Amino acid sequence: MKHKFKTIAAVFTAAALIVPTLGANGAINGPLGTTGKQDGGIGNSTNYLDDVPNIKVDQKVNDIIYPLFGNPAIKKQGETVTVKIDSQGKEAAGWDVKLKPTNHSAFTETYDLPVQKVSMGESHWKNSEKIYDVTVQIPENVPEELYDLEVSYTASGQRKTDEQPHSVKVVKEYKKDFEFLHLTDTHVGSPRNLGNHDDVSTIDPGRLKEAGMWDAKEEDRWLYLQKAIKEVNLKNPDFVVVTGDLMYGQMNPQEYIYEYEETYRILQQLDVPVYLAPGNHDAYAQDATLADGAKYWEQYFGPQYFSFDYGPYAHFIAYNSFDWHKFDRSGHGTVSVPTWGGQIREQQLDWVKKDLEENAKTAQPDQITGLFSHHNPLWRDRDIWPSDDPDVQKYWKQYDEQHNPQNLETLILGEKLGIQYDQQWHGENAHELIEIMKQNDVDISLHGHTHIDNVTEQDGILYTTTTSLELSGKPWVGFRPLEVKNGEITNYNYEEPGVSVPVYENGNTEGGVMALESQYEKPNDGHATEQTVTVYNRLKKEMTVTVPMYLVKGEYDVSEGTVKQNVASGDKQYVEVEITVPAKSTKEITVK
Q1: Could you say which of 197, 240, 334, 466 would form a disulfide bridge with 44 (CB–CB 3.0 to 4.6 Å)?
Q2: Could you tell me the pTM of the whole model?
Q3: How high is the pLDDT of residue 311?
Q4: Buried b / exposed e across 197-217, counting CB within 10 Å, b at 16+?
Q5: Angstrom distance (rounded) from CA 129 to CA 87
Q6: 251 and 86 Cβ atoms separated by less than 8 Å
Q7: pLDDT at 57
Q8: 488-532, pLDDT tens digit by residue?
């Protein structure tokens, strides 16, 4: 690790040179002026190429193209779900569909999903000669839990089996009053995790530990993200949305392979459904476009844009706000990138409009409608960059003469200005998207990219930008819980103005102490006949959390809290306890 540490440290000499400055007329102000550093840049590292020299892309999206790990289905007991299968052009039959325990469950039982209907289908993102829609029913006896999906079928005389982890959440009822969480900018692989807020060229020992930068031990790698995930699981929201920049993708051309693998592995520690939208760092086309992050995204997570429902109470669209021609997002050298700002092109914009219009035909009055993406369409570079700068004038003149893709001279000038003024929504269709949102009564729009917290309400739409999970986040590393009651978003701030919940106690990353934590007296693996769990709430507000316990099958009494589930599966008993912990205090739950 020592030689790698020196390599990574050298990155900051270059990184320190790319901190933007304010324009002479103070054009970058308000929330954008607080970002601390722009989001593009340059770097050079071997990551852990020395340890795993022959690693290759391990495609995760194969036959099953819905539901997926990054686009799961939330369904009630007794309801049907339509599974989409890409048979790669082959005639398929003999369907067998199952729900299986996830990699973090102590359960061992699987559940057969009876096939109700099979028909030919289609997909807006996956080109294939044959896509089958296989509609199956979830039995009433399936416990409320997150499951892996397994599909087997026969094609060309051969039996095929495919799985998608964490892709189906079974619930007893959809909650009219529910909670979801917004996370963003996890940046697995980012060297910016190592320096302090004020000087990215430094190496802070506390942050070095929390980053676990390519640590040889998986359990110590990306510790900051693992801690955030533990807190998300403890909050136990109905679902989670993540608005991009999962990877860093800017150190060397082969980096994406490692970072996509690591991100996919780490995010499977989530015990709740997670919906993923890509960011600019996920979709650069590096090394003369041979390594295309946008292609990797589809291989690991599926569609770059899609929509989903939480029963009748919510309809959300995840869209790709880094929707550029490959030439515009291509890096070179070690690896600089010319474009990191937002854009949505006509094809995707038309899809968003159609999806919202179709949803409006059946939506009930108290349904909330939301969009989420990496870039916030409110913050356009055309409005932010100083109009009296001759280079800015030259750039927009060239851009208007040719874009999609831009010419090389324009790209180079845009990168130069981006380093000076940053890039927010850099390209097309911000106003058009906002107008579509207004026309279709969208309630909320969630974003990342800036690594800061900001909440803006405009024309009845709540635009929330959440700080990063990368350790560069300001005012701290955090995530945003959003509560919905009677069709209205009622609670989304930990502190005013618009600040999210800190992952670390008092926002102190270097201290490494989690703000919300549960500690089990015995291993939570289904072998104990009693258990004691201590829940620590180090935050300034009370927190309602859910504590899962796997025990030997039997009858149990719970000392504190409300039992939300108490079900047997095989020789295991699952007891789920909800408890409210006051601010700056602890609660102990004993189960016997």
Answers
A1: 334
A2: 0.92
A3: 98
A4: beebbeebeebbbbbbbbbee
A5: 8
A6: no
A7: 81
A8: 999 999 999 999 999 999 999 999 999 999 999 999 999 999 999
Read out DSSP for 397-419? Answer: HHHHHS-SSPPHHHHHHHHHHHH
Residues in the chain: 592
- Both tokens of 331, joined, read 């890096």
54-93: pLDDT as tens digits: 667 899 999 999 999 999 999 999 999 999 999 999 999 9
Q: What is the dihedral of CA 370, 503, 48, 255, to 10 degrees?
A: 20
pLDDT of the residue at 203 = 83
What's the rounded mean pLDDT across residues 5-31?
Answer: 29
Q: Which residue has the tokens 């024309």?
A: 459
> Which pLDDT score, from 0 to 100, does residue 223 have?
97
- Range from 204-213, 478-487, 529-538 carrying the lowest mean pLDDT: 204-213
Answer for the pair 402, 410: CB distance below 8 angstroms, yes or no: yes
What is the structure's pLDDT at 328? 95
Mean pLDDT of the chain: 89
Q: Dihedral sign, CA of 210, 211, 215, 219? A: positive
Q: Which residue has the tokens 């339509």?
A: 82
Which tokens go with 251? 């150190």
Strands (E), 470-530: 478-485, 488-491, 501-502, 516-520
Q: How many CA atoms lie within 13 A of 32 on its CB side?
A: 26
Q: Report the SS3 class of residue 218.
A: helix
Whether 129 has a pLDDT exceeding 80, the answer reads: yes
Token pair, residue 202, equals 């430094």
Cα–Cα distance, 273 to 81 (Å, whole number)? 15
Residue 6: the pLDDT is: 24
What is the edge-to-edge ordering of all strands in the sheet holding 111-112?
Answer: 73-76, 158-171, 145-155, 92-101, 111-112
Cβ neighbors of 318 (< 8 A, separation 6 or more) are: 71, 241, 275, 276, 277, 305, 306, 307, 308, 371, 372, 373
The DSSP element (H or E) to which 381 belongs, if any, is: helix 381-384
Mean pLDDT of the region 332-339: 73
- Phi then psi for 332, rounded to 5 degrees? -155, 165
Residue 111, beta-bridge partner list: 99
DSSP states of 253-314: TTHHHHHHHHHHHHHTT--S-EEEE--GGGS-EETTTTEEHHHHHHHHT--SSEEEEETTTE
Amino acid at position 579, single letter:
I
Is residue 175 within 8 A of residue 238, CB to CB? The reply is yes
Give the whole-angstrom CA distance, residue 244 versus residue 238: 20
pLDDT of amino acid 255: 83
Dig out the tokens for 53 from the structure: 């020299």
**What gap in Å lies between CA 432 and CA 442, rounded to an integer?**
14
Q: What is the CA radius of gyration of the chain?
A: 24
Distance, CA of 522 to CA of 528 (rounded, Å): 7
